[in-house]
Amino acid sequence: MRSRLFLWVPLALFAFFAGVAGYMLTQEKDEFVESTMIGQPLPDFALDPAFGGLPGAAKTDLIGSKPRLLNIWASWCTPCIAEAPQLEALQARGVEIVGIAIRDRPEDVANFLGRYGNPYSRIGSDRISEVQLAIGSSGVPETFVIDAKGVIRYQHIGDIRPEHVAVLLAELEKAR
Amino acid sequence: MIRAVVALLLALLAIPVMAQDSMPPAPYAYNQLDDPRLEAEATTLMHTLRCLKCQSQSIADSDAPMAGDMRHQVRSRILAGESPDQIRGWLIARYGDYVSYEPEVSATTWPLFAAPVLLLLIVAGVLLRRLGKRRSDAGDTV
Amino acid sequence: MIPEIGLAALWLAAALAVLQMVSGAFALKAAEGAVNPLAIYARPAAVVQAFLAVLAFLMLLWSFAITDLSIKLVASNSHSMKPLLYKLTGTWGNHEGSMLLWVGVLALSGGLLAGFEKRLPERTMGATLAVQGFVALGFYAFLLLSSNPFERLPVPAAEGTGLNPLLQDIGLAIHPPTLYAGYVGLSVAFSLAMGALLTNQVNPSFARVLRPWVLGAWVLLTFGITAGSYWAYYELGWGGWWFWDPVENASLMPWLAATALMHSVSVLAARDALRTWTIMLGVLAFSMSMLGTFLVRSGVLTSVHAFAVDPERGAFILGLLGLYIGGAFTIFALRAGAVAEGKRFAIASREGALVFNNVMLSAILAIVLLGTLYPLLTEVFDVRVSVGPPYFNPAGAIFAIPMLLVMAVGPLLRWKSDKPARLQFELALIASLVIGVIALVSFFGQFPLLPLLGLGLAAALAVAAFLPLRGRNLARVPVATWGMVLAHFGIAVSLFGMACEGAFSQERLAAVAPGGTEQIGDFAVTLESVTPVAGPNWTAIEARLAVSRDGGEPVILNPQARNFWSPPQSTSESALLTRWDGQLYAVIGNQAEDGRWQIRVWWKPFVTFIWYGGLLIALGGILAIAGRVKVDVKRRAAVTKGAERRADVEALDVASPVPAE
Fold first, then answer.
1. Which residues form the Thioredoxin domain (chain A) (predicted)?
2. Which one of B16, C128, C136, C493 has the largest count of C-beta atoms within 10 Å of its C-beta?
3. Chain A contacts of C302, Cβ < 8 Å?
4. CA-to-CA distance for C347 and C372, rounded, in angstroms?
5. Would you list the DSSP string of B93-106?
6. CB A77 within 8 A of CB A151
7. How many CB atoms lie within 10 A of CB C382?
8. pLDDT tens per residue across span A84-102
């Protein structure tokens, strides 16, 4: 008969699979797609104002003396409501937040800011998710740390919870 | 996480009415390019790009607004003269290999390509063992 | 009361599974020919268990039918306003209910096996029933301990949450039950294979017992996959019929293994060869259906069709997987060496072709398995990749094309050894058809390589499928051979549909104002009007599309965009115009700000052939079963005719073994 060792191959393959699958079950499944633009300079963009109250946003607005936050959000996004107080807290700590409103209307943006507060220095309107795609963001809300040279240094996916405020402040400090 | 819940709802593919924006889709999200050759190029490419907001669907198979915006990017870039490979590369630079259903040979994907070659060798080996050597002793021995 | 009866039935059935397992195992302790007194309980335990498990399922079905909102499962998956059909099908449109359906079918097939299978030696039967009981016990435990479908709510809900609208379709009535029955049929094949391996009874008579289960499971899987593909095609609204999604692959992999198993079982039954290999495939086929269950329900992979994702349940299923499959592979490794080598054969023989087919099917299975699991593997290292059609299509084709070519000639070869020179005419015919069709099609335009090859192969296979009938008296061809011819022809038909869809599909996306007309292929599509309509649990806008081919009489199509309110979701209901040579697929989208409507229309030539082919393949399988049963019944009748004719019967048995494909 053939060598007996050969007969153990299926079991070995199965054991390998069971190991991998078992390990993956213990890992928390995150559906987030991380941007691979971290460490890269921002792509060029210049967006019109999202509503009458604030100027629009361009790449040049994110280059200057200090790191800034780039917040990707939308008035139709429910988690964006949840993160509004944290954005306000960050702004109160002296952080400049540039917003990009995805697929949004001026009246809805104004309405949202009126209701949940306005932590932004400027908001660009990205009606076809152009800038969102260019920086590798896959949803709303997402927050990027941009250093003074306009390089993307950190990406926070999902709404900012109170415990994330310190993380973002630390990342801003690192980017200095 | 609220977003995780939203993602779960999205898992059911039909987008929850609540979290959808009311904006009109991007110009090329639901409109074809006039040149049939370019449109064919775009369609082929779109069928191999992953919709990032969906569960395992290509952007050519999804009603998610973001898929529409990605289709717009693909069509308008094709129209601007970019090649499908350039566009795929542009997206991979932003989202990693995850965005493309067409794995490229790289440090992380080589086993996918080694496997068929290895399989061919195994198959040839098994067939030779099983069938080849019997040629010599094709007698009816149990 | 109803759910408590169901739950009690389930607990009782689990207890009987223990009895079946223990009693079956005692059969192994009996001396050759003798019957262990403790082994007699296995069969009745399996039969009664079948009744109890089916009863439990009927109790749940009833609870869904009357929308008993005091049951958690009903409240979270049903709605009183839902049409009755979807209330019933909703029973298995969720994790717990579908597991109960699975267990019900498992117990039912165990009961059928125990009740009707009398050909196997008692020891082998005992071992088989013990394994079957062991498998069933795991699933009972899974249901009772982690997914109790009958759990009551402390306070009955006022109204149910409703069912995912995508599942509110006749497809849910057909696709999951057939697929589950197929999976479960493979569990019987698994138990039989383990029983034969444990008692060293891997021989042609075992193969003849195994064959109807494999064929039956294979028919159900074929039908289930075909139905699922068509369902996804019209329900998801983008005209895709197969996307190599993990869940789709999860149903394809058992089918591939079962296809290989079905062929190797035939070799074992007819020629007493491929013994170890058949056992291996028996284990593999069931492993693949267990793996499918794990992938679909654990949420380790991302899929469009996934439901009831829960890592804890995933851990439970993985545990069962480890127990059954790990155990089976261990026993295989320990015992397979003891299985004597089967009969030998030459490379150019029916067996040779079937071995080639088996090896290629296994290679395709390996590719699909690797491609499906690869993203899981890289995620361990925190790298995310996607593997899709651009990988599966060419990598699968490397092995599928040689396999299909051998499939064309294999049935023409004689058992044991043959001379290829005998088949010169057939080989030339097949080769010229492949080359001729490819040349002809390329002459008319530029098409992608794979669909082109598919067209050439389809033409050759369609003709080759009928070659085994050449020169034979058709009235005397065994029913099983007709089954093979039909199934192989079905492959050709399906391949033709896939190739045409890939090469000739046309797409038209446009924003159309009411009254506007769009042209696609030979069809002029006019948007006559868009009106709101309402259903029992949804509202929708419905388009009225007048479709006219070459200026002929227009046909009205009514695609809808539906909004369900519980749960709040929107779906596209496509409208299909089926012609003999293809299908027109129309979808209505959103209204643009200028008042025009987005419509999507595809003309897919011969796309329906994909599923016609699938049905033909399944029908071929049914004929094969019918043929086998007929031969079997004849044989049994002959045996009962008494001792004086036994010698004749034996002579008959030796002289005319069942012609296998």
1. 36-174
2. C128
3. 31
4. 33
5. HHH-GGGBSS--SS
6. no
7. 8
8. 999 999 999 999 999 999 9
| Residue A74 distance to chain B (closest CA, Å) | 9
CB of A78 within 8 Å of a chain B CB? The answer is yes
Size of interface A-C (CB pairs under 8 A): 59
| Composition of chain C by helix, strand, coil, percent to 5 | 65, 10, 25
pTM of the model: 0.91
Cis peptide before A141 (omega within 30 of 0): yes
Question: What's the whole-number mean pLDDT along residues A127-135?
Answer: 92
Of A10-14, C340-344, C609-613, the range with the lowest mean pLDDT is C340-344
Please list, in sequence order, all residues whose beta carbon lies within 8 angstroms of the beta carbon of residue C182, skipping any fewer than 6 positions away: C217, C218, C219, C220, C221, C222, C223, C224, C254, C255, C258, C289
Q: CB-based contact (8 Å) between B122 and chain A?
A: no
Other C-beta atoms closer than 10 Å to the C-beta of C40 total 15
pLDDT tens sequence across C274-329: 888 899 999 999 999 999 888 888 777 766 665 555 677 888 889 999 999 999 99
Instruction: Return the ∠ at Cα C328 (arms to C325 and C332), rounded to 5°.
Output: 135
The mean pLDDT of C586-605, rounded to a whole number, is 89
Question: Is this complex scored with an ipTM above 0.95?
Answer: no
Q: In CATH terms, is domain A46-174 a member of 3.40.30.10?
A: yes
CB contact under 8 A, B6 and A79: yes
- As given in the structure block, the two tokens for residue C633 are 């019944």
Query: Which residues of chain C does B99 touch, with a Cβ-Cβ cutoff of 8 Å?
Result: 386
What residue segments make up the domains of chain A, in order of their start?
Answer: 46-174
Question: Across all residues in chain C, what is the average pLDDT?
Answer: 88
Class of domain B2-102: mainly alpha
Instruction: Name the minimum distance, in Å, from the CA of B21 to any CA of chain A.
Output: 6
Strands C575-579 and C555-557 turn out to be unpaired
Secondary structure letter of residue B49 according to DSSP:
B
Q: Which residues of B touch C303 (CB under 8 A)?
A: 55-56
Whole-number Å distance between alpha carbons of C133 and C117: 16
DSSP string, C568-611: EEEEEE-EEEEETTEEEEEEEEEEPTTS-EEEEEEEEETTHHHH
C 374-403 → B contacts, CB under 8 A: 374, 378, 381, 383-391, 395, 398-399
B3 to A139: CB separation less than 8 angstroms, yes or no: yes
Q: What is the rounded distance in angstroms from the CA atom of residue C13 to the CA atom of residue C389? A: 43
